[in-house]
Amino acid sequence: MGALTAAQEQERLNEVHRFLQLDFDQTKEFQNIVDLASEIGNTPVALITLLDKDANWVKAKSGLELPEAMPRETSFCQYAISQTGTLIINDATKDNRFDNNPLVHEPPSVRFYAGAPIVVKGSIRLGNLCLFDVRPNELNDFQERALEVLARQATYIMELKLSQKILQQHIDEIEDKNAKFQKIAHVQSHEVRQPLTSIMGIINIIKEDGYKADEDKLRMLEEAAHQLDNKIHEIVSHTIG
What is the tens place of the pLDDT at every residue in 22-31? Predict the structure, then answer.
């Protein structure tokens, strides 16, 4: 796959930011996924991470207490997003990419890493479902396939939760507009009646005068009609806005 271009990385970051709005802690399925991944991979730690511009966000974890945001520059996941398939590092002390990495040379002294990608829109890698161990390790074919299946399952759940969140936002916006419309209609119905009442009053005066309307009466009728027309336009404008 190779390194991402600037445009590809920006597109990737845009997608990461969309999914960061999800509350992973409120979805039990994510915890189930990392717990199962740790058990299948026979590793003490499993994480779901989203890689941002400067931080690696730990959104679900099993086996180790970690801060939610870790520096991107020390993350293993930064290498996983630039390749196709699952990244497996059997012993980080033998990989020169981690020669100065404090996660390897200081506690927790990471040795083993396996990261299966969280992929949306066919090719955009947001982060990884990853396994960690403090001793050199490896995955057999079944374990690697299972990790990839669980990563896809995590992706499906993320997409579902984001769709639900966006739908609820649209529903809330519609309900808010409806509430505003009802308020506007209630408040301004009285204001609409005022020019309408004036028009009806002027018509009655004209009728009482044998329908002999002079210029002043017609002008008053015209002004009242204009007021009503302006008020209707104002209500429509508020409703559309």
Answer: 999 888 999 9
